[in-house]
Design brief:
Layout lengths: L2 H51 L14
């Protein structure tokens, strides 16, 4: 194996390694965002439940017609 070929392979390896690290960072950030959104959705659901429970008895809880 020539010296140039070895250098080319090492360079390609380093580029691939950097790409992999970049993608890993992106996936981690997306996962954190998903977890944050899941917590927000859960809190919103809890608030809706609380509001529905606070409605006077006999008040129907109906979905809007566009559902």
């Amino acid at each position: 194996m020539t010296e140039q070929r070895l250098n080319d392979l090492e360079l390609k390896f380093m580029e691939q390694e950097q790409s992999l690290n970049d993608l890993s960072d992106i996936v981690n950030k997306q996962w954190e965002e998903i977890e944050k959104l899941q917590r927000q959705l859960s809190r919103a659901g809890d608030r809706i439940e609380t509001l529905e429970e606070a409605l006077p008895d006999g008040t129907p809880v109906e979905k809007p017609p566009h559902y």
